[in-house]
Amino acid sequence: MGSQKPLLEVSGVTLQYKTPNLLVTATYRVDFNVLEGDRFILLGPSGCGKSTLQKAVGGYITPTEGEMRLKGQVIRAPGPDRMMVFQEFDQLLPWKTVRQNVAFALTAARKLKGKEADERAMHYIEKVNLTKFADTYPHMLSGGMKQRVAIARGMAMEPDILLMDEPFAALDALTRRKMQDELLQLWADTRFTVLFVTHSIAEAIKIGNRILLLSPHPGRVKAELNSTTDPKDAALLEQRIQHMLFADEAKEIIDA
């Protein structure tokens, strides 16, 4: 594992964006590598730049400093080798069925067409347990089902890396837990690589095999941790992460 060449390399990345009144630094000199088959988590409090960092991996934001490489190639723009799944439920085309939504991504990217696109769409729709709803329109689906369609659409493209930005945050607690379990089962079946953003420590520990902990704004790397499936170890890891995230904040309050 140690000698495995990284799939994604993020080196000294500083990300900034402008508001009408000031220049905001979202992340500062962030470094990390994602290996093929990783369930890699970007974890940190709101405003630490984790979603901005993921958008940069997607090719939507250019680093102010540093660079990102996928398979050794510098990321300069969006591409079908990186697919994003967002937390919003309106990421599907409302006038297309589940099957058509998944197949449309393939035809729009000119990866497949016609029957081949439909067959691959159905393959991944089956993977997310929505075969019976293949000809259903989005407005007839629950929030969790819509997210399954979005995941199927992303996976149907068979990207090098699937980018998931708090995809379960808008779901109720029970549905969220079910979706986490389904994502892990899907990963066990296909071993895809995922870069997953969350501010939930419990979700990070459950889903990830590696966790990058980012400091409050601007986001800097505080630590990189390996996750665990042992419940006792998971509880200790959660306590450790909470301490690392909030110790500095508590110190600032005391010093003030």
UniProtKB/TrEMBL annotation:
Keyword Lipoprotein: yes
Gene3D superfamilies named in the record: P-loop containing nucleotide triphosphate hydrolases (3.40.50.300)
Record key words, sorted: ATP-binding, Lipoprotein, Nucleotide-binding, Transport
Domain (ABC transporter): residue spans on this chain: 8-241
SMART domains membership: AAA
Coiled coil: none
GO MF terms, alphabetically ordered: ATP binding; ATP hydrolysis activity
SUPFAM superfamilies in alphabetical order: P-loop containing nucleoside triphosphate hydrolases (SSF52540)
Family, per entry: Belongs to the ABC transporter superfamily.
The protein, known as: NitT/TauT family transport system ATP-binding protein
Highest classification ranks of the organism: Bacteria, Pseudomonadati, Pseudomonadota, Alphaproteobacteria, Hyphomicrobiales
